[in-house]
Write a structure and sequence with these properties.
This protein has helices at 3-14, 24-35, 40-50, 54-61, 83-87, 90-101, 143-153, and strands spanning 75-80, 114-119, 131-133, 136-138. The protein has 154 residues and is of the alpha+beta class. The chain has a four-stranded mixed β-sheet with strand order 2-1-3-4, with helices on one face. A hairpin with a 2-residue loop joins β3 and β4 (136-138). Bound molecules: FE2/S2 (inorganic) cluster.
Amino acid sequence: MTTAIANMDIKEMLARYERQRPNLIPILQAVQEELGYLSENAIDAVADHLHLSANDVYGVATFYTQFRFTEPGKHMIKVCRGTACHVQGSGLIVEELARKLNVEPGGTTDDLQFSLERVACYGSCALAPVVVIDDKVHDRMSPKKTLEVIEDCE
Ligand code: FES
């Protein structure tokens, strides 16, 4: 999505919300749903719409873990960091992915192909370790199996 289109979409979206501070979180959620993250331009537009400063908007948004501030990759890799998955080696999976893709957890590869995140218990502990790639749950994963799935995405 080009910046021009993104800006236009954000303006249209903001027009649906009254200029009231209680609308801040619903607006941020809608923006993230549309863009995949909260860009600097989007934060500025939201602040302008609600007559707040960009710092105020950042201050609220950074309080919630649901918001991202960098553009997500085409593919999202989430490795469970819950206890069962940790015991079964999810840390090794993260290390291998970070090494192979050259990206830190919480980051996105330079080519915007992959984002890597560590997430709380996914609720499938019996299937540990769990890796979720593009919303598909992969159970009993190993570093090698995870890299094979990743290669199929490329
Ligand atoms: S600890 Fe990973 S799914 Fe529960």
